[in-house]
Amino acid sequence: MKVADYFKKWLVAIKSEVRPNTYRSYKGNMENHIIPYFEKLGTELQELKPHQLSDYYKSKV
Question: Could you give the C-alpha distances from 58 to 5, 24, 28, 46, in angstroms and in order?
């Protein structure tokens, strides 16, 4: 499973667990920033490395 696909499934899973405003915030951040970044990388979840997360954070600063 790709990292981006995992995040999409995570959004579905947490929808009923958080308040509506929290979900909208999570969804907006995921769909506008996190998912596109990791879709572009195409990384498999089991191959995700710490430096890839650091690279994402650095790209946002």
Answer: 22, 24, 19, 22
